[in-house]
# Entry
Amino acid sequence: MIRKAKVCLIGATAVGKSSLVARYVRSVFSEHYLTTIGVRIETHVVDRITGPIELVVWDLSGEDEFQSVQTSYLRGARGFLLVIDGTRRETMDAATALEASARRALGPVPFVVVLNKVDLDALWDLTPADVAEMRRRGWKIVETSAKTGAGVKDAFGQLADAIFAEVQPWT
Amino acid sequence: MTALLPALEAVAFERLPDRRFIARGGVPTWCTAVRPNVDFASPIVLEDVFPFLTVFLPEAERAWGDASSRAPVESDLWTEGDHRGRDVHLRGAAVRVGVSEVLVVLRSDQLFLQHQSLLQRARELRMVHGSLMKQIEQKDIVVHAVVHDLVAPLHTILGILSLLGERPREEPEAGLIQLGIDAAKRQRDLIGEILDIFVVESGGVRDDVHESVDLSDVLRRVVAEREPVARSRGVRIEVTDDGTASVVAEEMRLFRVLTNLLDNALRYAASVVRIRTRREDAVVMVHVEDDGAGVPLELISSLFEKLAHGRDGASGTGLGLFFCRITVESWGGGIGYEKRPEGGSRFWIRLKGAPRRTEERTRKEDRAHGEAPHAG
# Structure
């Protein structure tokens, strides 16, 4: 029987959560920004060494002054991607707050920090010290580009592996 | 009527005793497009078919459990993709119909697009605002650096002119040197004002100022400095001050604020400028009045804004009153303008009163003697 898990994507607005899902599930990317309302749910089967895993991906609307992440949407999630826009340092602060909310709602489930928009090298705003600080917290980090596809499969794959691993090394 | 719900792009699921659901009244095409492998003619576990409903069912239970309530409970919007990859926007509504517990899922593309359009516009404007603020901040830093660099050569010019002015000279040389000194001083004051505004705008001024400043002393020095200007314009300065007011402020900036207000009044006065201070409970009011023409109505609303034009369209930098406002506000005070009924302008500032010097001294003495302050 195929293993199944609900995973969520959380992060500030316009960090690229929906673009990551579109790239991962449908292999497409659009430069046009479309804000997510509520939640978008998609299913994708990923083949891992341990066998196929069906991920039910909940792409939650971004957190900002206009809309807050509904923590009830996290209920039942086995893990989450915490998405940061590497070209906007302030999205790291939002991620820090959201990680705490998710931990309160879900307990110690696995998560992967996604530093997105790595293709925009010239605009990169995160410093090595920022990344070192996140690693010091024990956060697993994957750099991605929804535009080029770099790192996207790896981020979801690592999360799927962590969810079904007997030992979860970064909770 | 079985086609009614599908025509409304809705599907109604009735809960069965085993907690599964069965579709009643037909199924719209989006349902089979989103879930092509589901047999909607048979009972289904609804939250398996629509995972979003796992978070809505607890809400629905409340609606079904309250027999007195007939109003439906609605879910938030959510989005799914159909078998062609197109977005389908949905929302749920739970309602009790007689003894039946019903959950309706409606396609709500129009509502979704309205929400999205509104939210997207707000977020785009916020991002544009953030980007512009960043650009302005960077520009301000450059301007600040340039203005700051203007100070050093200006001090040299002032020094040289002062040295030249100390030696006895015939006219018109002596007068020209004095003109140069006056111009350099005006430029120095202007640079000081610009740098002060930069400091206040960038949060450099503390908003927890506890400094107690002797208002009368500062006022006396301001008037003394501007007296020659007033005389040269044939304007009289009258001061009504009981000499007891201490205020919460910073002395150097208060000097500049009062100088700005007095300069403005002198510029437009016909014959007299009146300055009055008055303590009103916890605040101290300072009025600076002139008997000029007053501020034209169309300029009043922007009088204290940055780069507001002067009354004659040419004089002033547009920074003076703006500086006064942000400075006074940073001390927890206020500033305003009103037209005098008898003609002319009245500018006022409201400052937080600090303990009077005698009260402060008494309290210090009490503390020194380990006694509690006297009440009443």
